[in-house]
Amino acid sequence: MSLVNQNSLVKPGRKFAYQQIGLTILVVFIFTLITYFCWGLSYAISALAGGSIGIIPNFIFAYKAFRFAGAKSSKLVVESFFSGVKLKMVVTALLFSLAFKFLTILPLPFFSMFCLVMAMPLLTPFILKHQ
User: Fold this and answer.
1) How far is the CA of 90 from the CAs of 22, 39, 49, 69, 96, in angstroms?
2) Which of 54, 96, 103, 118 is deepest in the core (most CB within 10 A)?
3) Does residue 130 fall inside a structural domain?
4) Is residue 2 part of a domain?
5) pLDDT tens-digit readout, 23-81
6) Is residue 39 part of a domain?
7) What's the rounded Cα separation, in Å, for the pair 78 and 59?
8) Do 28 and 129 touch, CB atoms closer than 8 A?
9) The whole model's pTM is what?
């Protein structure tokens, strides 16, 4: 176990971020299944791709942003947060590029699911109990 993972100040934030991502994965899975049964496989693939493009960068950001905590580590906290944001943007752009290049995307389910994933951080505090 590295020194980064032993910081007790980071654990609540990291736990909540991972719970939020887990809830988002569940929501994407449920809505993808609903999309599949209502509109078919091509719509479901587009929805799943849009959800994945939102989830993967969020997971990377959560990992980077919640590595450090505390007054002694304030510079590291800021640096890890901003490097997480930058990496999240790069990964998001890369995943969008790959999806548009290699998948046949149906815009409505794709962007609807992506927007839902982007809105989940606003909704999950009402669903999850943050301790």
Assistant:
1) 22, 32, 17, 25, 10
2) 54
3) no
4) no
5) 999 999 999 999 999 999 999 999 999 999 999 999 999 888 777 666 566 788 788 88
6) yes
7) 18
8) no
9) 0.85
